Amino acid sequence: MLEYFWYRIRPAHVVLFPLSLLFGAASGVRRWLYRAGWLRRERVPVPVIVVGNITVGGTGKTPAVLWLVDWLQEHGYRPGIITRGYGGSEHLQEVRCDSDPARSGDEPVLLAKRAGVPVFAGRDRARAALALLAAHPSCDVLVSDDGLQHYRLERDVEIAVVDGERRFGNGQLLPGGPLREPLRRLASVDAMLVFGERELQTTYAPQFLARLRGESFHNLLNPDFRASALDLRGKTLQAVAAIGNPQRFFRQL
To answer: Which domain holds residue 247?
Structure first.
């Protein structure tokens, strides 16, 4: 329901604007406490790359994490993935291909199946990082799926993923808009990965365009069975999407 207000300005924003100001103040104080050392940060013994966003909802982080892990492996690294485990218990746990999504979360199980690297999930990503390295000491780099606002974990690289279509909505902080942090937060990230046709009109950070491409369909019960779009021509199909921006999926389909 709130998304109805996040991509436009409505009369209800008379009430939502003050709440957004309070949210922004609390977010700013929290970040300052970490930067000033009042709240402790955890440094792990390998580089940490955070792939996150400053908006609520899906922007393409999971595909970006999978691509980045593949790229790291191609260049001789041994990556691991840490994530919160939304949709599961959010308790610290190692996630495997056959883990129960109800306990581990559906995205962590997807990451474990697709990436083929160690995956640990937990609300506290610093603990998840340390647990992964203890269980898999050969890992030499960690990729955090989301966690741009999880300041307890020290990071070496920050990549902000942006939906090039929806962008930043009405530009307001929660709950009046979709922003978790002010737009100026992007000035401190190392790169912006924009899923879309053109770069954003902003100079916050270096931008890189990305595009999702799907050329074949996989049978979930038998992953070895695939079909092309031509194979499905003329058939009656049902499409279901449960992602942050489902319309993008249907357009692609």
So the answer is: 217-252
